[in-house]
Amino acid sequence: MSAASPFALLANATSLPWAEAPAWPVAEFVRATATELNRGARLCAWFGVPEASGTCLVAVLAFDTDNTLAVGRSTPLTGSYPALTATHPQAHLFEREVWEQHGLKPEGHPWLKPVRRTAGSAPANDEFFRVDGREVHEVAVGPVHAGIIEPGHFRFQCAGEEVLHLEIALGYQHRGVEAALTGGPHRATRSQMETVAGDSTIAHATSYATIMEALAGTEGPLRAQWLRAVALELERLANHTGDLGALANDVAFLPTASACGKIRGDFLNLTALICGNRFGRGLVRPGGCRHDLEPERAAQLSERLKIALADTEQAVAWFWDAASVRTRFENVGTVFPAQAREIGMVGPAARACGLVRDVRYDHPAGWHRFAQSPVAVWPSGDVFARARVRSLEIQRSGEYLREQLAAPAAGELAGELAPPRPETLAVALVEGWRGEVCHVALTDASGRFRRYKIIDPSFHNWTGLALALRGTAISDFPICNKSFNLSYCGFDL
Amino acid sequence: MFVLDTITHRLKRGCETMAYPNGPAPALPDRHGGALKVEASKCADGCTACIPVCPTQAIARPPGQPVALDLGRCIFCAACVEICPQAAITQTGDHRMAVTRRDALLLGESGHEQVRLAVALDEKLRKLFGRSLRLRQVSAGGCNACEADTNVLGTIGWDLSRFGIQFVASPRHADGLLITGPVTKSMELALMKTWDAVPAPKIVIAVGACAIAGGPFVGHREVNNGADSIVPVDLYIPGCPPHPLTILDGLLRLLGRLDEPSRPGRGALAATDR
């Protein structure tokens, strides 16, 4: 499919000269993008790059079955352009974002409103969608929530218990990450990358390191790639286990909730065994990794991993054995495969709708070129499926780690990195535990960042949660929300 | 069958709650490093090697003055420790670093090489909160790491509730706030409203480099560089994120539930700062 594409093709974790990205007048560019999306491509990124005479739009597409990415752009424009969202809903947040950041109005966008802009001391939320009717009532939740979680605002339109519509308003966590990156990298850039979404430190740090390596025209040493792959799976194990525990807690199934809460910490401690920090801060650096996993340490890691995996297996078995749990999860919060495809969902949430989407498999880079694990898929699209996919991924990550720890890559852990090439665009995708983490960087004439775009998987998936709530009882919101467990700060940037 | 399995397994696992604080504290990971110690007296004349490597600009050395490291801003990357030619900045391996006064995190000059650990609340507050403290958590730009390592204190391993400390769902039920994140401009209103809704007397705990000083986002116009620009803070717990043990130590210290007047084996620094 991609062979006939007029877009410039490139593989994940590589770069190309900016001049080689084909440019069309905007109407033609939107049409060309729509054509590729119709042929099965997926929109990974859509953003603006400021030029002297306006803003040029850039699209990064993924041809998953061809293991290829594609880049194209528009010539600079001001004012408005025909919305891609009108025909391809997966662009809806991207176009709102471009409108917010660059003032380009997508004509025909059905719900054009701010994404994360601050207005005074709160986000600019604008009007919410409202359903009218005598029996209809509105429920507002957040920004500050009942538990220890990040802030966001949920506005439900309900008829009795049933949710007719959910609108999710974010932006409370906006820390100005992208704006600060222009002109970078700066001194704080690496730690900002590690805190884009703090529970996905390894995924975002690896994406950033990969970008810097691609811009330098090289790749990290094999041993570092191996160690990054190990750390990425530990991150997945910790979060998936925590999520299963949280789901158990929300249906009052306390044995699994208690056990998983503790085991999650055991997995985090394995990351801390490698680098001292439970979230992997400071481990991944452009050009390599900072801490090595020496044989003795690796042996200890393997031993403790074995115990934690066995504990997880037991805790999760209780959970799946209980009919009371299954019945709370089945047919609750369903997203249909066609919807998931249409809105461009990624990660476990997409795989729980039967979509075979996994960057480790579709666009392997780094160590995943040499070692992969099977993609975990479940077809039903409900809370059950999202829990099931996590459960399967825990098994497969465990298996993957056992294999990788038994056969470590030899060699240097870090090398000197050449400065980024000027006028170059680099793309890095990493399959974090929530799904596809996408970083795109464009350098200026001096090799500094002219534009740096971060797309956390949550950016694709929040709409999935909104759809999952349609026709669901509002009392099921907690388990639906937990089954997605999306990032607020990764979205708000 | 299922019920029996569950009971058998629970019995096999036994009590999983750690002995601390009655027994020894769990060991920090060997590469964690713990709190930093800064001995400005060791610095070479005019040396500023550590200053440009700090990602959060936590280290300063004004001309003619000793080097000063703000542990509140520190994200514990240890870049300064690695580059210092005089070993003036070292890792202590100590998990304890919560303080009650912001300036107790400024390290460097003689007598202030290490943090001046938190003192307990006054007697009246200790009487109120000492055995029952209810907190409302507000994440205000936190990346979900400080949140996660606060949350973990509620799990069976740490079991925060055995100290009478609990996180509650409403500010009306709370005795105070535990804030994470640099306090984004977009959370200012929500934080103020939450603070106003907590009945007095109330306390505020700032967890993590962001909530203390803005962390990696210090200076961004979208953030407030920490919670104490919005609400008065009673306890600062440094880290990126702080280890759960560091957070627990801070909470217990504030409530006067740790009985340890000095740092055995780590120099003769007094544990109080006022």
Written overview of the protein:
The complex is a heterodimer of chains A (493) and B (274). Helix content of chain A is 40%, strand content 19%. Chain A has 16 helices and 18 strands. In chain A, strands 1, 3, 4, 5 and 6 form a 5-stranded mixed beta sheet that branches. Chain A has a 4-stranded antiparallel beta sheet with strand order 2-16-17-18. In chain A, α2 (92-102) links the parallel β7 (80-82) and β8. The longest helix of chain A has 29 residues, at 222-250. Chain A is globular. By secondary structure, chain B is of the alpha/beta class. Chain B has a domain at 123-254: Rossmann fold. In chain B, the strands form 3 sheets. Chain B has a 5-stranded parallel beta sheet, with helices on both faces. In chain B, a hairpin with a 7-residue loop joins β2 and β3 (68-70). The model of chain B is unreliable at 262-274 (pLDDT under 50). At the A-B interface, β10, α3, α4, α7 and α8 of A face α1, β6, α4 and α5 of B.
Could you give a short description of this structure?
The complex is a heterodimer of chains A (493) and B (274). By secondary structure, chain A is an alpha+beta fold. Chain A is 40% helix and 19% strand.
- The CATH superfamily label of the largest domain in chain A reads Cytochrome-c3 Hydrogenase, chain B
The overall strand count of chain B is: 10
Low-confidence stretches of chain B: 262-274
Give the chain pair forming the largest contact, with residue counts.
Answer: A-B, 64 and 70 residues
Biggest pleated-sheet summary of chain B: 5 strands, parallel
